[in-house]
Amino acid sequence: MPEGHCTNTTAELPNDIPEDHPKFIAAWSIEEQKKPETKSRAKLGTIAAGCKTYLKSGSYRDLTDSYRPVIRRHVEAIRDTRGKAPVTGLRAYHINADLDPLTPAVARSRLKAWKKLCGFWTGQGMIPDDVSRAAVGKKMPKTEGHKEWTRSEVALFRNYWPIDTPQRHALELLQWRGARCVDAVSLGPGMIDRNGLLTFRQQKTKVIAHIPWTCPALGLE
Question: How far lies 40's CA from each of 24, 88, 96, 199, in Å?
Fold first, then answer.
């Protein structure tokens, strides 16, 4: 196999959920583990070298745990498809060409990755101007959004899934605790103190959340 060659996975990743959704991240992680580990030497001054530098930077490490794999996936795709081109020759129409074959949702995430890269490269003096500002993303199709379940639908779900099943656990956790999906998947018994208070740091806002678990909602002091 030639040096630097990357074998792309043929598995289908979920396309009906956001790319920072825990299910998408889990599916992506599984596929990434299937790829053979390869060593490649990016030529100095190329987009590939710029991608490598970014992924080792504090700017990348400062991203949230849920958002970091999303950006990495797109940065690696940019590296694999555009990596040989000189970073100083990058123009907005190159970014638009990269977005063109993608679905609107994926194109929006890819453009965010381009913006992260170009912002970093500009700050490091690798390119004179942030050309991603002139790139044009794709409009998301109008939808009615996620349909809110009715009480009868919730009752139907509860009747179908017994209390000791993961599906029922997930429903009750989301229904009664109000945590975001990205936070709900990481909740565990170790986050509940001796007073029965569930405490965790929210990934999106970095704010500490306090939720009564077995203690009364009032008079926690």
Answer: 27, 21, 26, 43
Element (H, E) at 210: strand 208-212
Q: Which long-range contacts (CB under 8 A, 24 or more apart) does 179-184 make?
A: 179/209, 179/211, 180/204, 181/21, 181/22, 182/20, 182/21, 182/22, 182/66, 183/209
pLDDT of residue 180: 84
| Positions of E strands within 31-115 | none
110-150 pLDDT, tens digit per residue, is: 999 999 999 999 999 999 999 999 999 888 888 887 788 99
User: In the CATH hierarchy, which fold is given to the domain comprising 22-134?
Assistant: DNA polymerase; domain 1 (1.10.150)
**Distance between CA atoms of 116 and 132, rounded to whole angstroms?**
9
What is the spatial distance between Cα 125 and Cα 127, in angstroms, rounded to a whole number? 5
pLDDT tens for each residue of 5-58: 443 444 566 665 666 566 666 666 666 656 554 455 778 999 999 999 999 999
Domain ranges of the chain: 22-134, 148-177, 186-221
